[in-house]
Amino acid sequence: MAPIRVTDDDPDGDWTVSGVFRCAPEVYRIPLPLPNDGLRAVNVYAIADDSGWTLIDSGWAIAAAREQLAAGLAALGAGLGDVHRFLITHVHRDHYTQAVVLRREFGGKVLLGRGERQAFAEINRPGRRQGSTVHIERLRRAGAAALAEQVAAYQGEPVDLSVWAAPDEWIEDGAVIAIGANASQRGLTAIETPGHTRGHLVFADPAGELLFAGDHVLPSITPSIGFEPVPPPSPLADFLVSLQLMRDWPDAALLPAHGRVGRRVHERVDELLAHHGQRLDATLKAVADGRTTAAEVAAALPWTRRERALAELDTFNAMLATLETSAHLDVLVERGAVACDEVGGVAHYYPK
Question: Distance between CA 119 and CA 129 in Å, rounded?
Answer without folding.
Answer: 14
